[in-house]
Design goal:
The complex is a heterodimer of chains A (123) and B (405). Chain A has 123 residues and is α+β, with helices and mostly antiparallel strands. Helix content of chain A is 41%, strand content 20%. Chain A is globular and about 40 Å long. Classes of the chains: A alpha+beta (123), B alpha/beta (405).
Chain lengths: 123, 405
């Protein structure tokens, strides 16, 4: 098997892929390496992340990373995004990612961070 | 496949295993592998003759200069240039195109126009975009139609009295389309416009004669034609180069210097400031000799056979989409394709497990990807050493891709 079973499973059956109705925050970015595009949308409730969803064209690693990130975000306060490290994501993906594919892991994280930063700047 | 049998022993890298499998290298369009003859030329140069060129009076300096200039003569013969002064060594195709953008750019005025095409590699797009931004020049693109051909009628309509330069690729690095350079040159002549041809995907794979094709500028890279990285060529028509100011300044490109002014050197050195990439040029000379001995007609025939076979094999698979002209006789040695539901990067990573090296992504042609409505593709590309068996193995691996993810 090329990737970890976590990546295969999340790629085949992502749980958080989809569009949110009236999101409170959203951001979209592109991986210049491969042209992958990821959009993450978030809804808040009581100062925490109530729901996160992602869309876009992306490879298995990037899709799995976005899906796991959306799951991790659920119920977290906004400040949480400052604390997540790439190593957390890698641990959840249970995969040994080559340097050439690291950007596939980090793109969703960067998109989420920018989405939440845009909220902070607005408020 | 006698050409493959003949050449395979010359490529040491083909002896290695990748992920426990014999390497199947199908990424020559990105960068080709190097035959022993090139590697030995590099080694011999560094072990026996290296010194700086042109200004050194000692023996090594003279030897290095002679080797560099001999490489220039080999390149001149290889592409059928009329004069050795027309061969400017650069770092690569990108460097060569930027050189023209700089040098010709200085002669342009706001409102002048440059025509490019929708199938250009970023290297033949971004330098012109930058020029457009800096000098108020207008950029227009020839659309592609059908299987991936330039729309020549639309091209005709893009010309205006302000058209100064047309920059077009000879062979698309994605679609494989071989563009009708002679016709394009004729149209440019008629309109009084200059024409630059990006030959990075053409010179390594087919006979190219710049004198009969007739462009003003023709650029290509050493590393895609069995030579080293860090060396490229800008062919420029003599009468044109001779009236053009240098793009960049430095040592070697001058005749005489005062504190406030300088006189430019003769061609081609006027366009080669600083110490040139001597060893890479020597390596390129060896690569050109190697290809010349094989014969470019033979190289073209071999690679077209592989391209045709690859198109046949992949077309027969479910879920595979091919890009570019279906007829292998009108295309270069690249086959871009996608497998439905599979991201190109996952596809390339899976093929790598089988020892197969292909390119995946947007191939530095994002506007083309947008036009095709895709993020990227997989791309197999061929060289002299590839075999029909390798194409069969590629097709077999591709047919298994979706089961693995």
């Amino acid at each position: 098997m090329l990737y970890s079973s976590v990546i295969h499973e999340r790629f085949r059956r992502p749980r958080f892929r989809g569009e949110l109705q009236e999101p409170d925050a959203a951001f979209e970015d592109v991986n210049p390496l491969c042209g992958d595009r990821v959009r993450i949308e978030i809804r808040f409730a009581d100062g925490t992340i109530a729901q996160a969803g992602f869309r876009g064209d992306s490879c298995a690693i990037c899709t799995a990373s976005a899906d796991i990130l959306a799951e991790m975000a659920h119920g977290q306060p906004l400040a949480w995004v400052g604390e997540i490290a790439v190593s957390d994501l890698l641990a959840r993906l249970e995969a040994d990612i080559r340097p050439s594919r690291m950007k596939c892991v980090t793109l969703p994280l960067q998109v989420l961070k920018r989405a939440l930063t845009s909220v902070e700047t607005r408020s | 496949m006698t050409l493959a049998l003949l050449t395979r022993p010359d490529f040491p890298i083909l002896e290695r295993l990748v992920n426990g499998k014999p390497l199947i290298y199908l990424d020559s369009a990105a960068s080709s592998q190097k035959p022993r003859q090139v590697l030995e030329a590099l080694k011999l140069y560094y072990e026996r003759s290296h010194a700086n060129v042109h200004r050194s009076i000692h023996t090594l300096g003279e030897e290095a200069t002679a080797l560099l200039e001999a490489a220039r003569d080999s390149v001149k013969e290889f592409i059928g240039a009329a004069h050795r002064e027309e061969i400017v060594f650069t770092r690569g195709t990108t460097d060569a195109i930027n050189l023209v953008a700089q040098a010709v750019g200085r002669t342009l005025a706001p409102g002048d126009e440059i025509i490019i095409t929708e199938m250009e590699h970023h290297s033949n797009l971004i330098p012109w975009q930058m020029l457009a931004r800096d000098r108020g020049v207008r950029l227009k693109a020839v659309p592609i139609v059908g299987e991936g051909f330039l729309d020549l009628d639309a091209f005709d309509r893009l010309f205006t009295p302000r058209t100064r330069l047309v920059a077009v690729t000879h062979v698309s690095n994605v679609l494989g389309t071989i563009n009708p350079v002679r016709e394009i040159v004729a149209r440019c002549r008629a309109s009084g416009s200059l024409v630059l041809v990006d030959g990075a995907q053409a010179v390594p794979h087919m006979p190219v004669n710049v004198s009969s094709l007739g462009p003003d500028f023709y650029a290509f890279s050493g590393h895609k034609m069995l030579g080293p990285t860090g060396i490229g060529v800008l062919y420029g028509r003599y009468e044109l180069l001779d009236h053009l100011d240098p793009a960049w300044g430095g040592g070697e490109m001058i005749k005489e210097v005062w504190i406030d002014r300088a006189e430019w050197n003769d061609l081609p050195w006027r366009f080669e400031p600083g110490t040139p990439p001597i060893a890479p040029a020597v390596g390129l000379g060896a690569a050109v000799e190697y290809l010349g001995k094989l014969g470019m007609e033979r190289v073209l025939a071999h690679e077209q056979e592989l391209t045709g076979l690859c198109l046949d094999r992949l077309e027969a698979l479910d879920d595979v989409t091919l890009y570019g002209p279906r007829n292998p006789e009108v295309r270069g040695a690249v086959v871009a394709f996608n497998v439905r539901g599979l991201h190109p990067h996952d596809g390339a990573a899976l093929l790598d497990q089988d020892g197969i090296a292909v390119r995946a992504g947007h191939h530095c042609a994002m506007p083309l990807m947008r036009k095709l409505g895709i993020v990227g593709t997989l791309r197999a590309s061929f060289s002299v050493f590839n075999t029909a068996d390798e194409i069969d193995l590629l097709a077999r691996s591709v047919s298994n891709l979706k089961l693995q993810l």
